[in-house]
Amino acid sequence: MIKIYGIKNCDTMKKARAFLTQAGAEHQFIDYRVDGLSRDLLQQFVDALGWQALLNSKGTTYRALPETDKTDLTVEKAMALMLAQPALIKRPLLDINGSFHLGFKAEQYQQLLTGAQ
Questions:
Q1: 72 DSSP assignment
Q2: Prior bond of 86 cis (ω within 30°)
Q3: How many CB atoms within 10 Å of residue 63?
Q4: For 29-57, how does the pLDDT look when each residue is reduced to its tens digit (9 = 90+)?
Q5: What is the band of 84 on the pLDDT scale with cuts at 50, 70, 90?
Q6: How confident is the model at residue 115 (pLDDT cuts 50, 70, 90)?
Q7: Half-sphere exposure for 40 (CA within 13 Å, toward CB)
Q8: Which residue among 7, 10, 41, 83 is the active-site one?
């Protein structure tokens, strides 16, 4: 089963979900804001991808953070921020059989779907 994590209103999420649907790939969408995000699941993401890759430092949510939250980031501080504000997590985050992938590019998804069969 393919799982795709993110936030419903994100344009990139919409493109990724549409791609999966059009490709006929059965998938489950997990919306951080609706379904929540556990510390254990975030730890799995961090272990697989690294907190620096997960933290969306280019988004409006990050830019709106106080400077004190953005300075001297550690894994614990970054995880606390991401748990408090899941919009800080880059998206989409795709889980194919326990293998995690960030972002959306049609070519990448096509390769991942081909390899998942």
A1: S
A2: no
A3: 9
A4: 999 999 999 999 999 999 999 999 999 99
A5: very high
A6: confident
A7: 0
A8: 10
CA pair distance 52, 49, nearest whole angstrom: 8
Residue 28 to residues 10, 17, 55, 59, 95, Cα–Cα distance (Å): 16, 10, 23, 25, 10
Supply the pTM of this predicted model.
Answer: 0.91
Contacts of 103 (CB under 8 A, 6+ apart): 12, 90, 91, 92
Largest CA distance in the chain: 46
How would residue 1 be classed by pLDDT, with cut points 50, 70 and 90? confident
**What are the tokens at 117?**
């069969």
Across the chain, what does the average pLDDT equal? 94
Whether the CB-CB separation of 14 and 39 falls below 8 Å is answered with no
- 27 carries an active-site annotation: no
Domains of the chain in sequence order? 2-116 (3.40.30.10)
* Strand partners for 28: 3
Torsion of CA 83, 85, 86, 89, to 10 degrees: -100
Give the N- to C-terminal CA distance of the chain in Å, as an integer. 11
